[in-house]
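ok so I'm stuck.
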Amino acid sequence: MTTYSSSEKTKNSLIEAAGQLIAELGLSNVSVRTIASLAKENIGTIHYHFGNKEGLFAEVINEVIQRWEAVPLEKELATLDLTNRTDQAIAIRRVVERMSQLIFSAQAPDWHRQVIYQVMQQPGILRDMFSHRVITPENQFTVELFQHIDPNLSYEQAYAHTLTIQSPLIVLADYQTAVLSELNQPGYNQEYITYLENILISQKQKFFDLPLV
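replied:
not stuck anymore, here's the structure
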């Protein structure tokens, strides 16, 4: 009889395998047979634990989403007075550092960041799921932050500022292989990530004439 622990191990193996394959090949190029082979599990275990391939993919995305939901941006900014210029500068730092840490955390496998790119390229339930639970609330709070900093900003302008602090981090994640090839490095080290964070933070603080904190 299958025990709870072995059942969970099987589920986790399938999620890990599916995540790696989605990140490498894209959603439409991953088969249940390939997933089962990489996970060293029977194809039937996919149907048993997840119902079908789509159910497994949803769990892959849910695992990534849960990391983001565990440290909500709203909570990160809750202790700050967003009418205060110093706190506004601190808020920008927290937004950038939180996103960077979530994307490049050494505690999360590489596919956690790479699978997001694959999901966002293909319209459907999975993209809607990630957008609803992560992207929309993240952008809402960041746009509101920039509108606190400059009340004259339109939504479109505040969203443009949001994109300019997110995009470099996303590019580093999505095009990791190409970037690391240019850097001639096997992986991103924390010193490089911190350097990039500080560039993004100081650029935005200077743009809005905020304290450099």
